[in-house]
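Tokens as discussed.
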């Protein structure tokens, strides 16, 4: 409770001496935003990168030109509408998982629309309880949700995307939470996508996807609409899901001004039943432990973007947005309650004991449930709860409403022999959340599902209202030092105010009032050696402020059950990061594109979820546990000829804790008094050391193209094994095959076979208490694993015009 004020004044206050020396001597830092994608020499005949004409939204600002990857002194990967058009990719995560460098995913929920996406060891996930470290933007609007910085991939269909850029590093211009990088999405308009496309996809496990797109313009006005629907039974038991989205754009283009109105609607019902104990997994990989685990999302969002070019060469860019999201969760699980013993106590009115037998007078609570503290459990009516209630239903509802705006001015001027391209802007965000949850006593069925009883835990209600408000001012200046060298400087100031309160007044300990102020800086250099080769280097800083869900669940003596119950509110410190990057990229006679680079990202006071128990380790609290570091080497190659193309992406990354701490992990058999000593240098769970992706495609006939994608990933430590005392999961490799053919001028057929050799592998794991639900369990390792998808086929029939 109380106030928490922190200040961050840039490099010196965030970077320890040893890392400060490494960072400064390794590279001059850089930050080039999209408006900085200029020629490296405006008045010479040497190489000059060309900026694409398409208007693109970058970071928090709307700019007047696209991000020119050749003119950036940091790593950036681009995926175009052609690559995103695979109709088996409902969300862009599928494409990133298959082909993007330094990207991995965790099958925590085993639902294709609920993955944990990790880039350079930092996460963007739809699940509460994870330390989010990537900022995601759609048309300049930050779509990380206000309550926990989560990202709902089911509300971001790939069919509406014109371009997707994955930006590396702790880039200050992209705002808060850009610890590991940023993902920026530009959607289609009637000017970028003319014509129509209707397709139907059928696949294994009763999968059915529908897509309809159409765009048109008359030179001044344009419109675009995309409708997507997905339904499937899911390859895991009891995992049927569906998702529906509608995206539309109304656009106007004038001589000096441009205007876009974007409207999004989404509705989904997703079931992802998570990891299972080894005994159950070995019996049947499609089995689930307990169910259901259901998430329903309903989204309404609108944004308006304006760009205007003044006579003086200045450009004004602005956007404003409103976002309304309702999320409902229902999780059936095993109960942590136990049958009351002789020494257990309760505080009940005598009238509540009237149904007890006289023979039970010495032990009046025998046959009823008690909690872990030995206190008798009662429902909302004050009645005792019988011991045969061995399950619970956790329900929660989150109403998240946010709005904001961005305004920026960019221009160009000469100062002496140097050319300056500058930008200054202001950014505002306000997000409100109404959260409520309850716990229903239940019974487990023969399939370990839960029943509905209408009896609720007297202590299981939680109500929490939160509000987050952030004001930011940012600026950047790109200086052309010589005909081949460009330098960029940038800064961003953020002030965030986060408030939480229990509207019922029953839990004053939930009240919290926190203010965070920080300044993040960037500076860097790009050296264009020749027309095909450039060297880049950068040093950047960013900040992540604790989210409302973290602030509301941060006391070790009052753990919460995610995402349902919050009990205490001591302050947390913000996470500060510094990233250093150095690389070379270009092209030659043999390669269409290559890049070799290294990165070092250090995050101080990283926030982690410390589990204190639960059948599946979902009880615990958030804590500033340790400093963390990601040190990596990246290699990207791409080539090909007239009829064929290929690519290779490899990442070697060491993701480690840089300070010692005690991790709470009661379900790990190696824990002592429910804790593990995590030493400096221990590897962060669920992040692979080696990650290899490569693929090729070939134009078999004039109208037919075939290809394959190959992925190899090293095994990972389980969540709850931060001390690295247990074995990793096994390494794995997977091959995906695909083909596309056209019939005439309008009809196309696509086929895809994922995991062609039906490899059995796991990408996620944690520790749990299987015997709480399965008394006959023989495995005592406590390991719960999330199996990856088996072999699955897809077939698409589409018409374009």
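Sequence:
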């Amino acid at each position: 409770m109380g106030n928490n004020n922190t200040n961050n004044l840039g490099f010196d206050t965030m970077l320890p001496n040893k890392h400060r020396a490494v960072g400064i001597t390794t590279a001059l830092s850089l930050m080039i935003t999209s408006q900085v994608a200029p020629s490296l020499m405006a008045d010479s005949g040497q190489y000059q990168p060309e900026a694409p004409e398409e208007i693109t939204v970058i970071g928090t600002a709307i700019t007047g030109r696209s991000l020119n990857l050749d003119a950036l002194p940091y790593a950036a990967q681009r995926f175009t509408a052609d690559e995103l058009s695979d109709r088996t990719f409902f969300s862009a995560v599928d494409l990133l998982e298959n082909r993007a460098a330094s990207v991995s995913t965790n099958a925590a929920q085993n639902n294709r629309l609920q993955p944990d996406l990790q880039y350079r060891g930092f996460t963007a996930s739809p699940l509460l309880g994870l330390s989010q470290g990537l900022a995601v933007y759609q048309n300049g609007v930050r779509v990380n949700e206000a309550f926990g910085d989560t990202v709902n991939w089911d509300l971001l269909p790939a069919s509406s995307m014109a371009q997707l850029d994955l930006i590396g590093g702790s880039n200050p211009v992209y705002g808060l939470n850009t610890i590991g990088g940023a993902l920026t999405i530009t959607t289609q308009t009637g000017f970028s996508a003319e014509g129509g496309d209707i397709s139907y996809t059928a696949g294994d496990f009763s999968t059915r996807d529908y897509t309809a797109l159409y765009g048109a313009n008359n030179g001044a006005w344009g419109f675009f609409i995309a409708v997507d629907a997905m339904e499937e039974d899911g390859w895991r038991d009891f995992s049927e899901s569906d998702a529906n989205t509608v995206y539309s754009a109304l656009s106007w283009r004038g001589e000096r001004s441009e205007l876009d109105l974007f409207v999004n609607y989404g509705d989904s019902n997703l079931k992802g039943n998570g990891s299972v104990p080894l005994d159950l997994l070995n019996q049947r990989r499609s089995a689930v432990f307990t169910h259901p685990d259901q998430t329903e999302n309903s989204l309404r969002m609108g944004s308006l973007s304006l760009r205007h070019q003044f006579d003086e060469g200045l450009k004004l860019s602005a956007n404003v947005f409103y976002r309304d999201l309702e999320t409902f969760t229902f999780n059936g699980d095993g109960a942590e309650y136990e049958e009351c013993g002789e020494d257990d106590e309760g505080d009940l009115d005598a009238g509540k004991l009237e149904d007890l037998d006289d023979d039970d007078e010495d032990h009046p609570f025998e046959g009823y449930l008690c909690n872990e503290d030995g206190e008798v459990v009662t429902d909302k009516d004050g009645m005792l709860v019988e011991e045969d209630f061995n399950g619970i239903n956790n329900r929660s509802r989150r109403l998240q409403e946010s709005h904001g705006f961005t305004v920026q001015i960019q221009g160009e001027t000469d100062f002496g022999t140097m050319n300056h391209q500058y930008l200054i802007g202001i950014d505002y965000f306000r997000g409100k959340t109404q959260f409520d949850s309850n716990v229903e006593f239940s019974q487990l069925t023969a399939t370990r599902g839960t029943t509905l009883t209408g009896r609720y835990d007297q202590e299981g209600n939680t109500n929490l209202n939160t509000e987050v408000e952030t004001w930011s001012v940012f600026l950047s200046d790109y200086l052309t030092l010589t005909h081949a060298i460009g330098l960029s400087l940038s800064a961003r100031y953020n002030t965030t105010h986060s408030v939480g309160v229990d509207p019922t007044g029953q839990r004053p300990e939930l009240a919290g009032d926190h203010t965070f102020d920080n300044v993040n800086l960037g500076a860097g250099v790009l050296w264009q050696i020749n027309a095909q080769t450039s060297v880049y280097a950068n040093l950047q800083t960013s900040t992540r402020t604790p989210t409302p869900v973290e602030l509301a669940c941060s006391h070790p003596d009052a753990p919460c059950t995610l995402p349902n119950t919050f009990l205490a509110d001591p302050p947390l410190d913000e996470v500060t990061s510094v990233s250093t990057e150095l690389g070379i990229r270009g092209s030659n006679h043999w390669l269409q594109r290559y890049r070799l680079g290294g990165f070092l990202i250090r995050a101080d006071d990283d926030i982690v979820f410390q589990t204190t128990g639960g059948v599946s380790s979902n009880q615990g609290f958030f804590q500033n546990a340790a400093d963390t570091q990601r040190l990596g080497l990246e290699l990207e190659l791409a080539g090909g000829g007239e009829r064929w193309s290929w690519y290779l992406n490899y990442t070697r990354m060491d993701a480690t804790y840089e300070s010692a701490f005690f991790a709470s992990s009661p379900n790990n058999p190696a824990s002592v008094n429910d804790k593990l000593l995590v030493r400096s240098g221990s590897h962060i769970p669920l992040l692979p050391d080696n990650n290899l992706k490569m693929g090729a495609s070939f134009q078999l006939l004039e109208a037919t193209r075939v290809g394959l994608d190959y992925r190899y990933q090293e095994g990972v430590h389980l969540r709850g094994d931060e001390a690295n005392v247990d074995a990793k999961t096994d390494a794995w490799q997977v091959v995906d095959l695909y083909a596309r053919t056209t019939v005439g001028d309008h009809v196309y057929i696509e086929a895809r076979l994922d995991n062609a050799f039906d490899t059995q592998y796991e990408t996620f794991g944690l520790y749990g208490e299987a015997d709480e639900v399965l008394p006959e369990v023989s495995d005592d390792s406590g390991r719960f694993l999330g199996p990856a998808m088996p072999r699955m086929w897809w077939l698409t029939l589409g018409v374009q015009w």
